[in-house]
Write a structure and sequence with these properties.
alpha/beta, six-stranded mixed beta sheet, four-stranded antiparallel beta sheet, binds adenosine-5'-triphosphate, ATP binding, transmembrane transporter activity, MacB-like_ATP-bd, nucleotide-binding
C-alpha cells in the first residue's frame, strides 16, 4: 500500500533557530519529493542547512512548519515514541561520525538496529558482510578498525534492517578520496540491491553527480544543482 507513495515528501517545511543575535531562519518553506528507489544528493555551502534538513527528516529536530511524510506517514505528527519506532524500522542513518557502539563487536554493531526492529535477516546480513568485505572483522571491536572499516560497518548497520529511506550526512567525509570512492560505490550498490531511497548530504560534486538528482540549499531554499 505504501509502495506508491513517495519515499519522502516535504511540503512547505521551514526551520529557524533562536540565537543570541536573534532569529536565524535556516530553511525557508521548502518542498521536496523523493520517489521509492531514487537517490538524491543535497549540496550547499557550510551552514546552509543541509544537516538541519536531514535531522528534520529523521525526526531528531522539530520543523517550525510544514509536513514531512515518510512513505506517507507524517513524522511531524508523531509523538517521541512513535518517531523512534519509525526511525528504527524505516530509516537508516549514516553520519560522518560513525557512531558505532564501542562495547559491541562488529557483528553485534551490524545486527543492532535490525534486532531492535525485530527484523534480523541472516541472508541479507551475509550479503552485506560479503559486499562490504566485513567477514574477517566480525569479532573485532570498533576501536580495532581503521576509519574506512568503521565507515563500512556503519553503512552495513544502517542497511541491515532494510530501511525504506537511507539518510546519509557526508558519509565519506572523513575518508581519503580513494577510500571515499570505494565506500561510495559500495553504498550505491547496496542501496540499489535493497531498493531503498537515498538522501545524501555531500560536499563533493563528483559524488553528487552519481545520484539520480542533485539539489543545493541556498538562502534557505532548494535549487536544482546546475554545475
Ligand atoms: N541548535 C542550533 N542552534 C542555533 N543555530 C543552529 C543550531 N543548529 C544549527 N544551527 C545553525 O543553523 C545553520 C545551518 O546549520 P547546518 O548544520 O544545518 O548547516 P550545514 O549546511 O549542514 O553545514 P556544514 O556543511 O558545515 O555541515 C548554521 O548557521 C548553524 O550555525
Amino acid at each position: 500500500m505504501q509502495q506508491n507513495k513517495p519515499a519522502l515528501f516535504l511540503q512547505k517545511v521551514s526551520k529557524s533557530y533562536l540565537t543570541p543575535q536573534g532569529k536565524l531562519q535556516v530553511l525557508q518553506p521548502l518542498s521536496l519529493t523523493l520517489n521509492p528507489g531514487q537517490s538524491l544528493a543535497l549540496m550547499g555551502e557550510s551552514g546552509s542547512g543541509k544537516s538541519t534538513l536531514l535531522h528534520l527528516v529523521a525526526g531528531l529536530e522539530l520543523a517550525d512548519e510544514g509536513q514531512i511524510l515518510i512513505a506517507g506517514e507524517d513524522i511531524t505528527r508523531l509523538d517521541e515514541k512513535h518517531k523512534a519506532q519509525l526511525r528504527r524500522e524505516r530509516l537508516g542513518l549514516v553520519f560522518q561520525q560513525f557512531n558505532l557502539v564501542p562495547s559491541l563487536k562488529v557483528k553485534d554493531n551490524l545486527a543492532f538496529q535490525a534486532r531492535l526492529a525485530g527484523c534480523l535477516d541472516k541472508k541479507w546480513l551475509d550479503e552485506i558482510n560479503q559486499r562490504l568485505g566485513l567477514e574477517e572483522l566480525q569479532e573485532r571491536y570498533p576501536e580495532q578498525l581503521s576509519g574506512g572499516q568503521q565507515q563500512r560497518v556503519a553503512l552495513g548497520r544502517a542497511l541491515a534492517h532494510r530501511p525504506q529511506l537511507l539518510l546519509a550526512d557526508e558519509p565519506t567525509g572523513s575518508l581519503d578520496e580513494a577510500t571515499s570512492d570505494q565506500v561510495m560505490q559500495l553504498l550505491l550498490q547496496l542501496v540499489q540491491l535493497s531498493g531503498c531511497s537515498l538522501l545524501m548530504v555531500t560536499h563533493s560534486l563528483r559524488l553528487a553527480k552519481q545520484l539520480d538528482s542533485a539539489w543545493q540549499l541556498h538562502s534557505g531554499q532548494l535549487e536544482p544543482l546546475t554545475a
